Amino acid sequence: MTPARPRPTRTRLARAVAWAASLLLAFALAPAAVFPTEAKADNPIVQHIYTADPAPLVYDGRVYLYTGHDEDNSTNYTMKEWRVWSTADMVNWTDHGSPLSVASFSWASANAWAGQVVSRNGKFYWYVPTTERATGRMAIGVAVSDSPTGPFRDALGHPLVGNGEIDPTVFIDDDGQAYLYWGNPNLWYVRLNPDMISYSGSPAKIPLTTAGFGTRTGDPNRPTLFEEGPWVYKRGGLYYIVYAAKCCSEFIAYSTAPVRPDRGPTAERSCPRRAPASPTTRASWTSKTVPISSTTTARFRAGAATPARSLWRSSPTSPTAPSRRST
């Protein structure tokens, strides 16, 4: 894409690594990948504007990449809109502009931070964190569109989850149940209803243990490596949570469990926003780190992509505003 310009001086290493991780994991998940030959992308793939928080989706033979957009001449993450890019070969990318912005939410005032798009019910749902005007705190909203490139509109007219929460990601299990995860310093989830814009029960915490999420040193208030930006997927009978680890700088780690992270010893319950009953959590997690280089060459096998197959994002941000970063 042109015109090119110098790389941003602000770097979002964790998000860049997360983007690479999510693509590799996603194409490993595909029954047969979209691309027949080895492809090497020109990095960064977007060189004419500042972008952050990439979250990919595979749909109908294309990879769609959803990002934030840092405004020029800003030193404090001035982000007013989200943008969409797509490719059929991982080399040539189309800029679809901005189909969603902070102004799309009547209740929001600032900060277009890290979100994710999933496809379901013949529609596309974009879960995003932004500042709630009434409280001045971050909240998770959801927008909907009939197309992966938009335009998107606010699906609710109010936040889906409030109380300073960011970094939403959605996982749809084999039984069709959808889950919304988010979190920093804690890892939260709720069960989404079939409409994808409401949930059942109350938000619950996944217990963060050092056995399951690694050991952090130097911060007694944060004993595990989990920092923020969860991304959940399933492969080979295991559930994976990929996340930004430690701070600062962050690196990518993942934890695995043989059962879905909503079963077993009772999860801690609290209140990000409205709810009665609560789910439980019983997962014996194992922690690992993921070494990923800054440039990656991926080999893809010939075949057809599964329609609406979601790529699993691993990207940072957090429910506490001070933890904001760059890619």
Automatic annotation (TrEMBL):
What superkingdom does the record give? Bacteria
Site residues, Important for catalytic activity, responsible for pKa modulation of the active site Glu and correct orientation of both the proton donor and substrate = D167
Pfam families from the xrefs? Answer: Glyco_hydro_43
Q: Catalytic center at which residues?
A: D53, E228
Q: Which InterPro entries match?
A: Glyco_hydro_43, Glyco_hydro_beta-prop_sf, Glycosyl_Hydrlase_43_Enz
Q: Which residues cross the membrane?
A: none
An example of a GO molecular function for this protein is: hydrolase activity, hydrolyzing O-glycosyl compounds
Q: What's one GO BP annotation on this UniProt entry?
A: xylan catabolic process
Q: Where is the composition biased (Low complexity)?
A: 295-327
Regions of biased composition (Polar residues) lie at 278-294
Region Disordered, annotated ranges: 259-327
Q: List the signal peptide residues.
A: 1-32
Whether Signal counts among this entry's keywords is yes
Q: Which UniProt keywords apply?
A: Carbohydrate metabolism, Glycosidase, Hydrolase, Polysaccharide degradation, Signal, Xylan degradation
Task: Name the protein family.
Answer: Belongs to the glycosyl hydrolase 43 family.
Name-wise, this protein is: Glycoside hydrolase family 43
